[in-house]
Specification:
With 1079 residues, this protein is of the alpha/beta class. The protein is built from 41 helices and 39 strands. Strands 2-1-10-9-11-12-13 form a 7-stranded mixed beta sheet, sandwiched between helices. Helix 27 crosses helix 34 (943-955). The longest helix has 20 residues, at 865-884. Pfam families: AMP-binding, AMP-binding_C_3, NAD_binding_4, PP-binding.
Amino acid sequence: MSSAPHPEAGRRLLPHIADQVAADTPDRVLYEYPSSADLTRPWTTVTARQFANAIDRAAYWIRDNVHDTKATSDNPTQVLGYSGPPDLRYYILVLAAVKAGFVMLYTSLRNSPEGDAAVLEAAGCTTWLQALRGTHIARVIDLGTPFVASLRLVALPELGFFLDDSTPSPPFPYTKTWDEGRRDPVWVLHTSGSTGHPKPVTRFLDSVAFAEANTLLRPIQGRPLLLHDIWGARAYLGFPMFHAAGLNNGILWPLVHGGTIVLGPPDLALNTADVVADVIRAARPEALYLPPSLLEDLAKDEATLQLLGTTKAIGYAGGPLSHATGNRIVDRLPHTALHQGIGTTETGWLPAVLTDRRDWFYTHVHPDTGCELQDRGGGLYELVCVRQAALEQWQPIFSTFPDLHEYPFRDLFSRHPDPRKSDLYRYEGRIDNVLVLSNGEKVQPQAMELAIVASPLVGDALVVGQGRFQTALLVQPSPSARSLSLPDFLATLAPVLADANRTAPAHARIHADFVLVGDASKPFARTGKGTIRRAPTVELYKDELDALYERAEAAQGEGGVVDFATKESLRGSLREAIKGLASTDKDIADDDDFFVTVGLDSLQVLTLRRQIARDVPDSIRPADIAAALIYRNPSLAALTGALWKMQSAGGQAADGEGSAAEQLLAEYSRTLQAIKTSANGANGANGHATNGTNGASNSHTPTFVLLTGSTGSLGSHLLNTLLHTPDIDEIWCLNRADDGGLEKQKELQARLGTADSLETALTAGRLHFRHSRLADDHLGLHDDDYARLQRSATHILHTQWQVDFNLAVSSFTPHLAGIVKLVELAASSTRHPHLLFTSSVGIANRSAAAVPEQFLSDFSTAGSGYGESKLVAELLLQKAAAVHSLPITVVRVGQISGPVTLPKHAGIWNPKEWFPSLVAFSAHTRRLPASLGRNERVDWIPADILAQILLEFATASTAATAPGEATLVHAVHPRATTWSDVLFPSVLAHFEAQGTPLQAVPLDDWVATLVKEAQTADDALSAKLSALRLVPFLSSLATTSAPRPLFDTSIAVQKSATLQSLPPIAADSVEIWLRQWGL
């Protein structure tokens, strides 16, 4: 059983803990291990007294045999290196070194000699304690580099020397107080080296003392901490002792939690499933703590699965466990708990709360750790630790990195689908492992890899495809499958791959042509804990993967012939090609939208583009067939017409966008005309609403706001502003999520520092969330909810709109249908609410003249289908105001910047947007562009201030507006500044003050650096620097000569006092953004 927390838990130095345990319970067994290779013979036990005695003897030995002569001001504590057999010397030396004033460095036996040399040199390790066997230092010395050549070797006695207590060692004096010793290093390990050479990681005494403070953490909803049934048990620890989980737990569980660690045979360097099974049979441990690779192997065999069932608890860490394996354990072993532990070399175990048995693969991070799951888009959340003084003893990461205020772990999670379990998150993989395909689609490969490796056929599986147009599978057969021929193995693998594809996004699925079977003589590169090193493995198979893609791309490009003989043959051949891509036998109508109805993704668009380009007649250049042509013409009728016109026009792309937009405008205008206006409306003779905010009455009537898109970036700030406006009596938020966006909203408001306001409004019944599909009848709401809106709504704030500049205007039809449905609500409502719509300055991106605050109808000025869709929406709302005498305001929103007025500068400008990406890349290269070309003018508005401006627009009186006339205003900064005048010098000054100055360079040179870096960047760098994925846009800053059009704000400043008095963007705002980005 785990011992009760010590009164000084969290403020005790590790050597004192060991001495105290020996004094209080000298005969308690801390460790058990086999006495010989024959596990049936009696095992060796080590008591607390023997362990403390061994530590003292080792401390004297270090003092007498290692001279502290190489410590420097940079490394005040001399670093001693060691690797050897997996025995107790790893644990003994840690505490002995601390007592003697040294620190131990342990390296992985899986490291390359070059990797070891890099760690030793970076850590300043000048002395190596050499075991008689089980060491690999000779390989490092053979490199002959100047640093390793100077390495001093000291022979280390065998384990028996230290454990011999026939003549007890005198106690080694260690008298440091907590304050004197807390910042002394306790050990040095290293990163896994998944993307390059490993790097040393030093932990300190206060860090491991904080781990003891975990025993003080409170239960959450009556649930204890995860692993509580393993810490104090007789637990077999299956991790290498040089690994953080093997070292940290092997020392702390016996000393802090009262447990006993069962170890395997000391003459085996690395564990296998067979070894673990033998240990379980011989030692009968109560619990196991294993790497997932070992647990996968043990659970595949029925006999060893039942052996696992003799334990009360199994924990795993260091990587994920396949869903199939975990469920098998949970289903078949009802008396054995399964726990997923999460930790890092830098911080140790992350305190988590026990979950339900069926939720074994979810993590409930303890709230007192200060760790947050921050939204990274696409349903993924990154684990981030935010520093809080009150939680210091449970935040050991800030012992390792004392200068940081926030630490992103770079681990991604997805939230539990059950709203009642919103604190549970499923591990999805590392940010570094996210694959970015050549079409910009992102793939998180881990779920597919786990599904595939769960098969008994598969030994290892790696999903690859960084920078490629398609994912591929690199797979190693299991030993039992190696006897199969290649065709037989692939045939047997096919259903496994099909199952994995079934749950994957369409763009991530692996085609049968994209499977590469690895060579048994070229095993995958691995870390010390046994997980695959992704980048080195991909590099190992680079030539084979290049050849695979060349063959597969050629095969995929074959397809059916795109027949340009007649317009009908072109239409028919395109229909068959698209049916093949969509894997459907259903007929595709001429007007079916490729993306909305058929469901094509960007990868399939690229394949279709290649097929068309292959078969074009001589009058069309293959290079003229771009993916954008398909996006702009997303139906058989449109694409056939565009291609046929190109053929007739000698290869010139036909611009059918204007006509498509005009057709949509005409179609939905007819629908608007048919909407019936409520006979019970509160309109006066002039057709204007007379509710409390739109009319002239001084009496207060309840203000009821309907907000769409509250979980968007702008929407979250707008909701925050509404919550802090006392005159707003009730707020309803409509979002597409099943829970109406409530859980995501909680997270967003927490990041804005306003979670309390949200909870208060929910509790008071002032705030409501509803699942809605705006294009559906009654907005997809229940009848009673819709009737409530008809009775009560005074304002409709519509911000929900898909942002995708690739899509054609016709793909935005659900959004345009939503506009009509919102007009229908407003027209049928008792109080005729003021409807405000956030449009975009993108409706006039191509305008050569200044843009007035007027409704426009020239679709040629829009730069994309997105801009055209917003323009169609504007014109529909103009018509709705005229036909139904509704108070309507259209706001064309410009560039939204990061917030600047929130308490403690909470919130953040999304680091993946173009400007934050530009600055981050500049910090990386130490080069900053002196101009921003087309985007030189800075007329941005911070998100939090824009929300207030929008509310002022929404509540402004409409009495001055002519009956049936909608209001149109521009939300751009009326006092624009420039990059060169303000932002550029502010960014330079910031980095100069940090001691990391940037070089000013011409924009062309900066873009050239970006393009070059993008061509050579590895997976990790591409994931870290989003600018590498924005090359086309950022390059256009230098290549597009015309500046962005000016947008008039004469009407806007009359309707918003905030906009009228808004000061220009200044250095203090720039400084806030830079701090938000951690730069």
